[in-house]
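Possible race condition, two jobs.
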Amino acid sequence: MTEQKRLTSRDVWPLVHAERAALAEDLADLDAEGWATASLCTGLSVREVLAHLTASARLNPVTWFAGVLRCRFDFDRQVAMQLERQLGSGPAETLGRFRQAVTSTRKPPLPAVALLGETVVHGEDIRRPLGIRHTYPAEALTAVAEYYAMR
């Protein structure tokens, strides 16, 4: 059995961008009821999870740490603050903000593969309650599984 080549950050970003774009496309025609659907993230709607994904695509280490300081190291509060910033005035604005972040390479102080994992996992947190099926590239799922296995 041959060992699979580990992906570099340069290899991972196109996978992140493709998964973000696929999620945006899956949500393009969602109605108000769909946006309000409870996601698989306890206490968060589909719209709120998408706003969370947008926030992680817009942060960098400096803005992430500034938010942590502002929230006095209360990470849940910091996540809620970032989510609120990205929600916008309604679902159309939430989706628009996410679409603007699809090709972003900004990230909190995490490896790029962590953003791929977040996009895959939260993508399912959104899609499953809506009954949307998505097929992921094996390369993306393998990279995520290897990353999580190391944790």
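Job #2 (started ~2 s after job #1):
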Amino acid sequence: MEFETVVKNRRSIRKYQDKKVESEKIEKLIESARLCQSAKNRQPWQLMILQDEEKDQVAQIMLDLFETNVYELPGYMNSSKYSAWTIKSAPLLILVFREKDEIWDLGDYVSIGAAIEHICLEAVNLDLGSVWIRDTAYTEKEICTYAGYPDLELVSAVAIGYPDEDPKARPRKAIDEIVIKKKS
């Protein structure tokens, strides 16, 4: 697929067909992240591939936040419920970790964002859909413990599978709204 087409066709997919992602495609997704540029070539991402009950357990950890919390949670956290249901719908979940290192926070986060975008664009190229999930932040400690890496930082997750929806492109700002000029 032409790169411009891949970029234009990328959408956040939250509904997936009940169809496994082939191991060859999973390898290509990982390879796309591996080849990504990173600040000072640190390559700070560590990826964990979860399927079936393992990824469903991550979703359940996210849902448990609402079932076990005796305090009223802020409204912005409600999206975590929908993200958990998306994870359950998807056949594949990639957890994206990094080693905690305050000196490298900004560079690592930007680099990891680029690696995640490589995965999302490769997904389109492979006729898959994906959505980048940050709602794992509210249960990061529990998910890291479940995954067996309590000393790592869970930066994000990516749900991937064969799309069962075809959402329209969401509105984007005009170029003159995102390109600024140097002030005198």
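The beta strands are 46-51, 92-99, 129-133, 152-161.
Logs attached separately.
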